[in-house]
Amino acid sequence: MNQFKLSALALGVAMGLPLPSFAQTAPTDNPLRKELLDLQARMAELEKRLQSAESNKGMTPEQQQDFNRIAVKAEALEDSRDFMGMKNLKISGYFDLAYVYNQAQDRAGFQFINPVQSGGYGYDNSYFGMAMLDFLKETDSGTRWHLTLAPNRGAGAIIDGSSIVHEASVSVPLTDLQTRLIAGQIPDWSGYEFVPAPQTKLVSHNLLFDFTLPVSYTGIGVDIVRGKWETKALLANMNASLRTPHQKAPVLAYRVDYSKGEFDGFGFAGVHGNVANYADGGGSQLPDSRLDTFEFDAYFIRGDLTLQGQMSIGRQKNAAITLDPVTGEHRDAQWWGASTLMAYKFQPTLEGIVRLDYLNNEKNGGGLLGYASSDGRNGIGPGWSYDSAASAWTQTNPERGANRTALTVGANFNFNANTTFKLEYRSDFASEAVFFDARSNGYRKTNHLLGGAMVVSF
Q: What residue range is the signal peptide (predicted)?
């Protein structure tokens, strides 16, 4: 009977010792975890020896001392782990070195942690070329604390040009773990594509991601999960960590997801409220104006096949590129578009991808979220034509903005569990000559981009 009790105790201690959660770190990389594993191995060996002993024998004095010493040391290591705050702490990150060739810009080279503000956000200078470090901590009460750092390339850098914080948020259980209060700086959650490179299949992003979606929200709201439905809603500043004078009203931002089954689901998101207006104010900043956006996205992922899609529509008051030709007053910017992606794994490590985007932006000379003036690098605004008599480029029809299409084909190769190589070729088309050609100092209707990336994550 004594032998049975001791065996059960040894087995319980050996198998029940929790390990500190150093996310995706090999056991030998952390001395504390390695020592706990060594202790478990020794206790398992001791239990095996006890089980093989004769039924009328118990522990020897040496075995009892060894057992007690291991139990005390294991408990001390657990206390040390908890004291240092390592319990339920996950640390992850990735490195994304990108290479981009832009034909119209006559530019080619590597991109990595380059400042977004220096060249302006664009489809050839989007959320790639990043180094990101992510900390996720959950307390015993269920509160989650999330901090993501991304120097020069994250949401904070796009908003103010200097912040390295991509996300800084908390999630606090209210009535239960499925009903939470969320607050802080939270990246936008719209669409089927994500910011982190390990979660995207191509190097660049689709047209809707780059030109119709917010960057982030700073505010407070709720996250509610009920069965297959999840609803998130915030009252927040959009793309601003601090409002300026005369800015008082927050926006309502929301996201609803439905996981239909194991392989498919859909979601929708929207933003409604007053936001910054970047239209030409004659040398002064225009007052905030009303923004309304809505997007729907869905996915089907089964086996080697991936299908994803998104439709978006938006409108911002008094934010169009072209003024009314009769009254000279500002008019509304309006847009709608769609994007679809198909991917297929020809081998477990090799995947082919095709993405097709369309963005309609012709009304009132064009105008998109954050883009209220002509942009020859991104191909936004009225088209241009060459006037040989004046030897100058002039706008063909200021009332009509360019509609955009982009076709991207690419592949990714999973070299190992932590390393992925990406390659893509992208052709952008416009209904008007809006792409500035750096070599000829003129405008064209098409542009071509070649991109590659090496993504290493842990």
A: 1-23
Please say which residue of 55, 83, 111 terminates a domain: 83
Whether 194 and 242 share a structural domain: yes
Beta strands in 264-304 (DSSP E): 264-277, 286-302
Q: What value, to the nearest 5°, has the Cα angle with vertex 109 and ends 107 and 113?
A: 115
Which pLDDT value is given to residue 35? Answer: 73
- Stretch 21-26: mean pLDDT: 38
Q: Are 207 and 123 a contacting pair, CB within 8 Å?
A: yes
d(CA 260, CA 254) in angstroms, rounded, equals 20
Please indicate, yes or no, whether residues 71 and 122 belong to a single structural domain of this protein. no
8 A C-beta contact, residue 257 and residue 224: no
Q: Which residue has the tokens 């908390």?
A: 170
Q: What would the pLDDT profile of 91-150 be if each residue is shown by its tens digit?
A: 999 999 999 999 999 999 999 999 987 778 999 999 999 999 999 999 999 999 999 999
CA distances from 426 to 195, 376, 431, 444, 452 (A): 19, 17, 17, 16, 11
| Same domain (yes/no): 161, 252 | yes
Question: By residue range, what is the domain housing residue 41?
Answer: 2-83
Q: 11 φ, ψ to 5°?
A: -65, -40
* 178 neighbors 161 (Cβ within 8 angstroms): no
Give yes or no: residues 111 and 73 share one domain.
no
Asked if residue 184 has pLDDT above 70, the reply is yes
CATH number at residue 379: 2.40.160.10
Structure tokens at 177: 């773990």
Please tell me whether residue 119 adopts helix, strand or coil conformation.
Answer: helix
Is residue 130 classed exposed, middle or buried when 0-12, 13-18 and 19+ CB atoms within 10 A define those classes?
buried
Question: Which one of 54, 83, 112 terminates a domain?
Answer: 83
Residues 24-71: tens digit of each pLDDT: 434 445 666 777 777 778 777 777 776 665 444 567 788 788 888 888
Residue 1 has pLDDT above 70, yes or no: no
- What are the pLDDT digits (tens) for 195-242? 999 999 999 999 999 999 999 999 999 999 999 999 999 999 999 998
272 in Cβ contact with 295 (< 8 Å): no
Q: What domain count does the chain have?
A: 2
**Does 210 lie in the same domain as 62?**
no
298 with 343, same domain: the answer is: yes
Over 50: is that where the pLDDT of 458 sits?
Answer: yes
Q: Do 10 and 142 belong to one domain?
A: no
The SS3 call for residue 241 is: coil
Q: Which residues contact 176 (CB under 8 A, 6 or more apart)?
A: none
Task: Look at residue 70 and give its three-state secondary structure.
Answer: helix
Supply 371's token pair: 């883009």
